[in-house]
Design goal:
- With about 375 residues, this protein is α/β, with parallel strands linked by helices.
- It has a single domain, classed as Glycosidases (TIM Barrel, Alpha-Beta Barrel).
- The protein is built from 13 helices and 11 strands.
- Strands 1, 2, 3, 4, 5, 6, 7, 8, 9, 10 and 11 form an 11-stranded mixed β-sheet that branches.
- A hairpin with a 2-residue loop joins strand 2 and strand 3.
- Helix 4 packs across helix 5, helix 6 packs parallel to helix 8 and helix 10 runs parallel beside helix 12.
- The longest helix is centred in the C-terminal third of the chain and has 18 residues.
- It is globular, with a radius of gyration of 22 Å.
Length: about 375
């Protein structure tokens, strides 16, 4: 019989459990800025899309949607404001921002939040970031005065010359930044709309060539390559220009042919009915993750959306019900368990979002739930 001394018992009691580290990444929508003149046609008051949040009741008297940010209508392109946000995010376990990134009219759009705010924050070393190229068309959705009028202001597609210009700029300006998020040394670059990409580049084969060129250019810059991340939703998984007749899984072969090495979702609304209870959506999420595991070769990083309600922009919307911080926490726990069951990949979880107020899917504190959503992240990923 082995005797354990009182010293041994005391030592065991003092052993601290080491909390596993996770990369919790929240999408950041960069429209809440006061220093970007290109936003003024949509939001003439000069506070970006906060204008849509602030005047919701004025436009729709008595509407149930009456959210207010506890931090106020902050200018996220101000480095001191972003410093505060980085502090709050990292304190609660969010350590990566995925910036929605735009390029229209041959130049970047809504980039001041990243360039003037985040990258100039005095504590930027606490946080990683990467880009999701939101290469969709822009219509009147952002302008509540004419949001119901069909119209295309800017097209999201670009040709090969413009694509190369974009890639070279991002490699130099962002990929080489010490805070850019990498997996196995590869900068992660997410693309939102594959049909737009293919249309602009001229076809599937031309897109394969362009993405291979992008990977080669990233290698020339000193990296092992680029981690091309696919935005998972139906429009991105098939294309009329791809012959999938010789394979039993054309979606998988299509993605592989294009060269995507990883994937995540941007929003639950992209793959299930969100006009229902959050717990029912959780069941759909479980099935989606299982389907992806069974049908694709890339590494999938689990995604959790806070909610969905586009009423501030459109006046009415599908609405996620019962998406309380407590239920949100359950889905985060599910994502954590998914990561733990896939030890061969980065411990990355994506969340929609840090600040999508007009889609009612945000982590930032509000008058309804206070810091509840951030506290949920903290409980799951920091064990506090």
């Amino acid at each position: 019989m082995q005797l354990i001394s009182s010293i041994d018992i005391s030592a065991q009691k003092n052993v601290k459990t080491v909390q596993k580290e996770y990369d919790v990444a929240a999408f950041l929508y960069p429209a809440y800025a006061s220093d970007d003149p290109r936003l003024l046609p949509f939001w003439p008051k000069g506070i970006g899309e906060w204008e849509t949040v602030a005047n919701m009741q004025e436009r729709n008297p008595g509407h149930y949607w009456n959210r207010k940010p506890l931090w106020g209508y902050i200018n996220e392109a101000d480095p001191s404001v972003m410093s505060m946000e980085i502090e709050a995010a990292t304190k609660h376990g969010v350590d990566v921002f995925i910036f929605d990134w735009y390029w229209y009219d041959n130049r970047p759009f809504m980039e001041t939040t990243l360039n003037n705010g985040f990258l100039k924050a005095d504590n930027v070393e606490k946080m990683k970031f990467y880009l999701m190229w939101a290469n969709h068309d822009v219509g009147n959705t952002w302008d509540t005065r004419i949001s119901h009028e069909p119209n295309i202001i800017w097209e999201g597609k670009v040709d090969r010359q413009e694509f190369e210009k974009i890639c070279k700029r991002n490699i130099e300006k962002y990929f080489k930044h010490p805070q850019y998020y990498k997996i196995e040394g590869k900068p992660v670059f997410m693309i939102y709309d594959i049909p737009q990409l293919i249309s602009g580049l001229g076809g599937v084969e031309e897109t394969v060539s362009a993405l291979k060129w992008f990977n080669d250019e990233t290698k020339k810059a000193g990296f092992p390559g680029v981690d091309l991340q696919l935005t998972m939703w139906s429009i991105n998984l098939n294309h009329s220009g791809f012959d999938g007749s010789k394979t039993e899984n054309p979606e998988r072969e299509f993605v592989k042919k294009l060269g995507f090495t990883s994937a995540t979702h941007y929003q639950f609304v992209h793959f299930t009915n969100v006009d229902q209870d959050y717990m029912a959506i959780m069941e759909a999420v479980k099935k989606e993750w299982a389907r992806i595991d069974a049908n694709f070769d890339f590494k999938y990083y689990p995604h959790v959306s806070v909610g969905w309600d586009n009423s501030p922009r459109l006046g009415s919307s599908a609405v996620v019900k019962n998406n309380t911080p407590e239920n949100f926490q359950k889905t985060l726990q599910m994502a954590k368990e998914y990561v733990d069951s896939h030890p061969d990949q980065a411990p990355l979880i994506t969340i929609n979002s840090w600040n999508e107020w007009t889609e009612t899917s945000y982590l930032q504190p509000c008058n309804i739930f206070g810091y509840g959503y951030l506290e949920a992240v903290k409980k799951v990923f920091k064990g506090e």
